[in-house]
Design brief:
Blueprint lengths: L18 E5 L2 E2 L3 E4 L4 E8 L9 E9 L2 E6 L5 H9 L17 E8 L5 E16 L13 E7 L2 E5 L5 H4 L17 H27 L8 H25 L7 E5 L6 H25 L3 H24 L13 E3 L5 E3 L17 H12 L1 H6 L2 E8 L20
Antiparallel strand pairs: 1-2, 1-7, 3-6, 4-5, 6-9, 7-8, 8-9, 8-10, 11-14, 12-13
Helix pairs in contact: 3-4, 3-5, 3-7, 4-6, 5-6, 5-7
């Protein structure tokens, strides 16, 4: 039998530096270390009286070692939130421990050198037995500040994909010395990963409008065609960006406002809000990307996002009366109800005064983080999965040929 059944031509074992940790359906930000998954079975010695002067050995109890997870200090509080479920400082009597959900199943995903998921391990019924908020500080040291969590586990099983959102917010200027062999800077990759998250969210949004929203089936065929074409285009953008980073979106499950997809007004308000955010985010790319090819590509994608914003406003008055139509105003990211007449109501695309990718990340956070979603009043009881597919663009003339055009 081949050592690597999924890739018989592979000879090298997988490396230990490409991995991600997931719980509650989301990858956890910035995990940099994970201790070994180890179990130990006690050796029970015994002998009968008539045996030679030796002992027999048999297996006894099996124990699973605690797992240590370590990551840099960021604004993501996933470790702390979980530790607080085991014991929360200042909680009143009867609420110090969240008995219903202090245990979690976590998944360790291991990736090959190309960033493709190779192996997954599921670790059952974990809970934090120790939480270290920050390490010792040393003015003479030169290390990142890290958080550490020790997880006590019930069991580990094999089960037969790195820039987390909070790291993307920590944008910094790179020098030419920081360029990788492909000519990209770390800041370029940060922006591209943020764009992947946005495109995965866009695909999920359009997919659920098409497949689940009641008002979609009562739209005119040309309006339905606009939305279907937008879905194909967003998927094409995602795959283009992934081809550069060689990494998938770190978030593949999304939250939306209450009544999303069920109510046409809420759905179109949210859709235009997202397109506003995508336009402004790609304009950050135009401003911040380090190469002309990437800047021009960001502008090319931004133009399509602008089309999508306008088309959402075009079809609003065509919503059927039984779905709350005709819809004459849409409230988008700036919180102002704007008439849909005319649909193309921008003389210039709106930058939202964003100049850094962290501003785009902040706008996306409620859609990808359960705690932020709850704080924003989103419906956290419904989670929507990103389901990638092979896109087919409406016209060959509009397909991506190269970064030089």
């Amino acid at each position: 039998m081949a050592e690597f059944t999924v890739n018989p031509t592979r000879f090298d074992p997988y490396k230990n530096f490409k991995f991600r940790i997931k719980w509650d359906g989301q990858y956890v930000a910035a995990v940099s270390k994970c201790s070994m998954l180890k179990r130990t079975t006690e050796v029970v010695k015994h002998r009968e009286g008539g045996d030679p002067s030796t002992t027999r050995k048999s297996p006894g109890r099996t124990e699973y070692d605690a797992i240590t997870l370590e990551r840099g200090v960021t604004h993501d509080r996933a470790f702390e939130y979980w530790a607080d479920k085991v014991w929360s400082l200042g909680a009143g009597p009867g609420s110090e421990v969240s008995l219903k959900d202090f245990r979690k199943d976590i998944i360790l995903d291991i990736f090959n050198e190309a960033g493709q998921k190779a192996i997954s391990y599921k670790i059952f019924r974990c809970w934090p037995s120790e939480y270290q908020a920050v390490p010792d500080f040393d003015a003479n040291a030169n290390a990142g500040v890290s958080r550490r969590s020790f997880l006590t586990t019930a069991a580990v099983a094999g089960a037969s994909t790195l820039l987390p959102l909070s790291l993307l917010a920590a944008e910094k200027r790179d020098s030419d010395d920081d360029r990788a062999e492909d000519g990209l800077r770390k800041s370029d990759i940060d922006i591209l990963i943020a764009a992947e998250i946005a495109e995965a969210l866009a695909v999920t949004t359009y997919s659920n409008i098409i497949n689940t929203a009641p008002f979609f089936g009562r739209l005119a065929s040309d309006d339905q065609g606009y939305l279907r074409a937008a879905r194909e285009e967003e998927m094409s953008h995602y795959l283009l960006e992934q081809s550069v980073t060689a990494l998938p979106s770190p978030f593949t499950k999304f939250f939306f406002p209450r009544h999303m997809f069920d109510d046409a007004q809420t759905t179109l308000n949210t859709l235009v809000t997202l397109e506003d955010a995508f336009i402004a985010a790609y304009l950050v790319g135009v401003r911040r990307f380090s190469t002309p090819n990437l800047r021009v590509t960001a502008a090319r994608i931004m133009g399509i996002e602008s089309d999508h914003r306008t088309l959402a406003r075009v079809l609003a008055p065509n919503v059927a009366a039984q779905d709350g139509g005709p819809i004459e105003t849409i409230t988008a990211i700036q919180g102002v109800a704007e008439s849909v007449d005319p649909p193309n109501n921008n003389g210039y695309e709106r930058t939202l005064k964003w100049t850094r990718i962290e501003q785009a990340v902040a706008a996306l956070t409620p859609f990808v983080d359960q705690n932020a979603a709850a704080a924003a009043g989103f419906d956290t009881s419904r989670v929507f999965d990103f389901d990638p597919f092979t896109p087919h663009l409406p016209s060959a003339l509009g397909e991506f040929i190269s970064f030089t055009g």
